[in-house]
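INFO  loader      accepted 1 record
INFO  loader      residues=273
INFO  predictor   begin
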Amino acid sequence: MIFRLVFFVLMAVGLGGFGVVAWIATRPPPAPAQIVPATVQVLASARPLEGGILLKPEDITSLRLPRGKEGEGTAPDTAEERQALVGAMLLHSLGGGAVLRASDLLHSGDRGFLAAALKPGMRAVTIGVDAITGTAGLIWPGDHVDLILTQIFAAGTLPPDRHVAAETVLSNVRVIAIDQRLVQGATSEKEQQARTVTLEVSPMQAERVSVATHLGRLSLAVRAAQSATLPEDVPQAAWAGDVSATLRAGDAPGAPGSVVIYQGSTDGKEFHF
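INFO  predictor   done
INFO  writer      dumping tokens
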């Protein structure tokens, strides 16, 4: 009796094991796991770019490539790398979506940058600016600007509506450098304030800038991108009376006057009014 019971138990276990093996054998094999290739994001041209231009933020985009296929001299897409590329000169033309490599660029701190960035016959002049006269750090290398001179004349030498005057000294000139590095997006307050802006000018314009620096306050006005290719505007001065209707009408208090009265051979006596 016991042997019969053991026999049936062994048979049941054997049949159960056989059934499990058969069930496993009839199942389809599992789908192979999909291997996602590793990729990197590198900086590339956002649109077709001409050789000789100075890169602006809108010229730079990101491109995803398989890791190991990006080649040498590429820059990863980080805020620091983007900042380093802005203002660099493109040595030759590139199509849109082309990877930006170190061999394609000449940076403002590199030796020979100014000589390479200047057009034939042009000169580079540098002016001092502050957070206001430098348009609050919103100028980029490659932008076109107007250089405006503001003068304040001594009271008494001119009528009140002629005490202050502003005029465009240079029109439609290209910015080729800001300090020795780009300041936009810098991390510290000191780096955010540009101290100097270098402009591309003709020899005669360079002389005008040299004189203007001794006459008054210089400031920059950024031109629209569409107007950067237009010829220079005819400089016209704006006087205080052109801006203030009060000064133009003569209602503003004038500068105190004086008169000297001489009696005989005595020294003159000055009266103020």
